[in-house]
Automatic annotation (TrEMBL):
InterPro entries (alphabetical): 6-PGluconate_DH-like_C_sf (IPR008927), DUF2520 (IPR018931), NAD(P)-bd_dom_sf (IPR036291), OxRdtase/DH_put_Rossmann_dom (IPR019665), TM1727-like_C_sf (IPR037108)
DUF2520 domain boundaries: 167-275
Protein known as: DUF2520 domain-containing protein
Putative oxidoreductase/dehydrogenase Rossmann-like domain boundaries: 30-148
Source taxon at top rank: Bacteria
Length: 332
């Protein structure tokens, strides 16, 4: 059952950033029998991607009807198996459950004797490294930490997003080429990240990606209340330009009232956001209060304070300008 992984070791690890979708191998060096535990938003996509890359999908686990339907849509005809049964049949077991559910799942599988020597066991949790798979490693399995720096919807749209996605990978030193090759099989770009760096790494991704959604949707709500009929179309060019400048210019790409030290404008923003609670004519669903901007003043204050601090530290504001901004941003 165990695959011969020796040819993986002949595959040189690429330097960071050297790999690209075009340079990814269309067929794996070793075709593995694999299974995926967890059919949330990530599991079905990876199951489909690795199967399309030439690996053999033995089966998946799915706890709900919704997750079974998601799996059926992404990998039609897949077999649904119990976790222990699936583990017994595969060379590579991929765990894509939630961060909170991962420790219990690994312990449960270890206690049932599901892991075996030479088997590859991978998880996709960004906050954890190899240590979470210690029970599997104690049984002789080979732990792999494979985290894609990407957002997933659980649909076929994600398959295109996988190409060019960067992955944080870790494995025992001799097996790092295996982890890197698995990522490159599906068009990813692997970067070796030690376990000690994982919490900060994951915090950075969550802060950027998750809070970006909150920030953008807050702006959309405020624009809608202000009377802009199609706020997404209205602000999209601005947000894309700001994001592009942030990537290419860093903090030097900042514009706006904080950068100018315009405390009066910032004060006016806070006053407007605090008043913004009138009924919008499209607000017919009480579960989606389009007119509720109560979360915006606090978020605006926090981000504006962080922005002002960074601009001041880079000597972009005078002492007087900075103190005026701080005074305006303080909760009254």
């Amino acid at each position: 059952m165990d695959a011969d992984l020796s040819s993986f070791n002949d595959f040189p690890a690429p330097p960071l950033g050297a790999a690209s979708p075009e340079s990814s191998r269309p067929h794996p060096a070793v075709s593995l029998r694999f299974g995926v535990i967890g059919m949330g938003s990530v599991g079905p996509v990876l199951a489909a991607a690795w199967r399309a890359a030439g690996h053999t999908l033995v089966g998946v686990t799915a706890r709900s009807q919704e997750s079974r339907e998601r799996a059926d849509a992404m990998v039609p005809g897949v077999d649904f198996l119990a976790a222990a049964d699936l583990a017994a049949r595969v060379d590579l077991l991929v765990l894509t459950v939630s961060d909170s559910g991962l420790p219990g799942l690994v312990s449960q599988l270890a206690e049932s004797g599901a892991f075996r020597a030479g088997q590859l066991v991978a998880h996709t949790a960004g906050a954890f490294g190899l240590e979470i798979l210690a029970p599997a490693q104690a049984a002789g399995a080979i732990p792999l930490a494979l985290h894609p720096a990407q957002t997933f919807s659980g649909t076929s749209l994600d398959l295109d997003r996988l190409y060019g996605t960067h992955w944080a990978v870790n494995a025992p030193l001799a097996l790092l080429p295996v982890a890197q090759a698995l990522v490159m099989d599906i068009g990813g770009i692997p970067a070796v990240l030690p376990d000690a760096a994982r919490p900060l790494y994951h915090a950075a991704l969550a802060h950027g990606a998750n809070h970006l959604v909150t920030l953008v949707t807050q702006s959309l709500r405020a624009l809608r209340v202000a009377g802009i009929e199609n706020p997404a179309a209205f602000i999209e060019p601005l947000l894309k330009a700001a994001l592009e400048r942030a990537f290419h210019e860093g903090e030097a790409g900042l514009s706006g009232p904080i950068r100018r030290g315009d405390a009066l404008t910032v004060q006016g923003h806070l006053e407007a956001l605090s008043r913004g609670g009138w009924r919008h004519p499209d607000d017919s669903d009480p579960s989606l209060p389009l007119d509720d901007l109560s979360d915006l003043p606090g978020a605006y204050r926090a981000m504006a304070a962080a922005t002002a601090s960074r601009v001041y530290a880079r000597r972009g504001l005078s002492e007087t300008q900075y103190r005026e901004l701080v005074a305006v941003l303080e909760e009254k």
